[in-house]
Amino acid sequence: MLQDILDRDSSDMEYRYGIRRLLVRLSSESGVLPTSLFLTGIDCDDKEPFGMGGYADIFRATYKTQPVILKRLRVYLNSRNSEEFTAFCREALVWRQLRHEHVLPFLGVDCVTFKSLLCMVAPWLSHGDILHCMSTLEKQGAVIPFERWIIEIAIGLQYLHDERVVHGDLRGPNILIDANLGVRLADFGLSRFSDSTTATVGSHHGGATRWIAPELLNGGPSTFLSDVYAFACVCLEIYTQRRPFADLNEAQVIAQLMRNQRPKRALMKSGRPIPDEIWSLIERCWTSAIGDRPDMKSIVLELTKRHSSEATESAEPNPDSVDDTAVFPNQSEGSKGPDLDIINLIYGSCGSLLIKEVVLSVRGSLADRFLCTILKIIEEQVTTIPRPSTFYSLRILLFKLASVARLYPSSLFLHGLHFTKKEPVVGGYFADIFRANYDGKDVALKRLRVSQSPRDNDFFTAFCRETLVWSQLKHPNITPLIGIDIESFPSRVCLVSPWMKNGNVYHFYVRESTDVSHRERVDLFERWITEVAHAVAYMHEQRIVHADLRAGNVMIDNDQHAQLTHFNLSFFVGDDENTPPNETAYVSTSRWMAPELLSASISRPNFATDVYSFGCLCVELYTGRWPFPDAANNVQAISRVLSGERPARPTLESGTPMSDGVWAIVQQCWMDPTERPTMLEITTRLSKVVQSSPSRWTL
C-alpha cells in the first residue's frame, strides 16, 4: 500500500519523503518487499554471468521483448533477517522511487530465474559504462561529449539530492550511457536518505577508495558534500580517462588523503589540458574545507552557463584499436613438435631487436607454437645452474608475446575436469574457488571475477602475468600450478592447482584451535615461517617479487607444511614495461605494506618490500591475527605505520611471547630498506634460531 501511495506521485514532497522512509524501514525490519515490485515473465538464457563483481553477478535477459540486465546479489528470498537482505531492500526501495532522465530506471525484482536468489532488473544499455563508451567512441573516431556528460551527471546528482538521496558511490563504472549517449546514474547499493545513518562506508569502500571523501575514511555516513567530492573525482576521471591517483595503489591513496593531498592536474588523452574552468570547479569541489564545497544546484548552474557560451569539447580519434578479447588457439591442432626455425628465431631475438620484432608480430596458431616452444625452453633451463644468459630474456619474451598475441600457451591447457557440483566452495571479492577432480585427484579452480566494465581491458594481461609467473615456480613450499582450464566455464579462464583441504593458515587455525597445544602451535609457527622464507628466497633467486606476502596467501597442505600461493601481483624483476600497475594493489594489503610503498617514495614493490612484509607475516602466523589487530580499520593502521610504529611483539593466549631469536629477525625485516637482510640471509638466521628451539617439529 505504501508503495502504491508513492507511485501515485503526490506533489507534497515532505509527505512523499516520510512515506518513503517508512516503507524502507518496514520492509527492512519485516523482511518483506512490496509485491508490486516483483516481476514475472523474464527470459534469461545466460548460464554464466557476463559481468561479475565482488557483491553481484550481471546477466542479460529479456522482459516484455525488451533487453534487460539482472543484477543478482548473493541474497536469497528466504534469508529475510540477514544484513544482506536488509541492504537489498534498501537499495531496491531507494532506487524504485527515483524517476529521472539521468537515472537508470528500476524495473523491479525477480526471484524466479535463479531459484529464489533475488535480482534487480533494469534496462540493458549496450554502451555500457562511461569509460567503455569513451573507448568505443575513440575507436570509431567519434567526438566524446565531455562537457555534456559532466553536466548531465551533475543534473542527475542534483535530482538525487533534491529527493534527499545521497548516492554514496559515484564513480565511472556506476555511470552508464544510454542509446542517445545520455548519462544514466546507476548502482545505488550505498545510497541512503540524507538523514539516515544506516549506511556507512567506513569499513568497506566497495573498491571506491579513489573517489571517497577524506572525512569518510574513518567511518560515518556519506553526505551531499561527500557526493560533491566524488563528483570532482569523476570530472577528473572522465577528462583524463584514468582513475583518480591513477599511478598509486589504494593504500597509497589513503596515505595521500591523510596528508591532505589531491590528484595532480593531468592532461587529457589528446594531450590537451583540462579546461581551466573545469579544473577550478574540481578544486572547489574536493576542498578539505567541507563547508566551502558548492552544492549540486550551484554546480549545475555554473556548468550550464559555461556550456551555453562554448562549443562542446571533442576528442581526437585513437588509431590504435586493439581487440580486448583473449583468443584461444584451436585445440584440435595441438602444439606441434619442436621446429628448428622457430627455435633459431627465439634465440636470435635475444641479440637482435629486428628478430625480436618479428617474433612479437606472429599471431594465431603460429604464435602458440612460439609460446609453447619458449615455455619448454624456460622449463628446461629453470633448474640449470648457472642459468644460460638467455634465460631471463626468454622469460620476458614469453610474457610479451602472450600479451600482444592475446594467447595462453596451449601446452598449459587441461582437459577432462569433473565436478560434483559447479558451485564455488569459497567466494571472495576478486575470485571464486571451485573444487573439481582432475586425473583422479582433487584440484582447486581459481576463477577470477571480471567486471562487466570494459575499463578492465587489462584483465587478460594481468591474468596472463599471474599464469606465466606461477607456471615457472617449482619449489616444495610453493603451491604448483597444474595448468589452465578453459572448458568448464564459457569465456572464463581458471587456474588449476592441487586441492588443499586444510585451506590457508586462518582456516587451519579455526579448525584445529582446540586440538593443537600451545607448544605444538609454536612448533608449527617455526616450521611455517622457515618454509615460507625458503619459498620467498627461491622466488627472489628467480628474480621474482611476490608483492603480497600475508597469511591468507599461505596454504597448509595435507602434511601440515606451508605452501606459498597467490601470485596475481608478482612480477619478473627487470621487466619494467610489464610490471603490474601499482594501482592493482588493494587497500586490504596495507597492513603488510612497507612504509616506503605507503608513502609512494618508491613506485613499485621490490625485494626489500617483500622482506618487510615477511616480518609482518611472521607476526600474523604466530597469533593468527592481522598486524595491528587493535586498529579499527586500515586507515588507522596506515597512519600508524607512516608515523613510524610497527606491530608489537606477539604473544599467544597462553602468554607465550615470540622467541627472542625470531623477534630479532622480525625487527630486522622492518629496518630501513637498505639495512634489511635479504631473504637468503633470513633463511640462514632462521635455521640457527629454530635449531636451538627447545622443541623441534615433533608433530
Offer a quick outline of the entry.
38% of the residues lie in helices and 11% in strands. The protein is α+β, with helices and mostly antiparallel strands.
Question: How does this model look, in words?
Answer:
This is Protein kinase domain-containing protein. One of its GO terms (molecular function) is ATP binding. InterPro entries: Kinase-like_dom_sf (IPR011009), Prot_kinase_dom (IPR000719), Ser-Thr/Tyr_kinase_cat_dom (IPR001245), Ser/Thr_Kinases-Pseudokinases (IPR051681), Tyr_kinase_AS (IPR008266). It holds the Pfam family PK_Tyr_Ser-Thr. It comes from Meripilus lineatus. This protein has about 700 residues and is of the alpha+beta class. It has 5 domains: about 1-125, Phosphorylase Kinase, domain 1 (2-Layer Sandwich); about 130-310, Transferase(Phosphotransferase) domain 1 (Transferase(Phosphotransferase), domain 1), CATH 1.10.510; about 340-405, no CATH class; about 425-500, Phosphorylase Kinase, domain 1 (2-Layer Sandwich); about 505-690, Transferase(Phosphotransferase), domain 1 (Orthogonal Bundle). About 40% of the residues lie in helices and about 10% in strands. Strands 1, 2, 3, 4, 5 and 6 form a 6-stranded antiparallel sheet that branches. Helix 6 packs antiparallel against helix 8 and helix 13 runs antiparallel to helix 14. The longest helix has 24 residues, at about 520-540. It starts with a helix and ends in an 8-residue tail after the last helix.
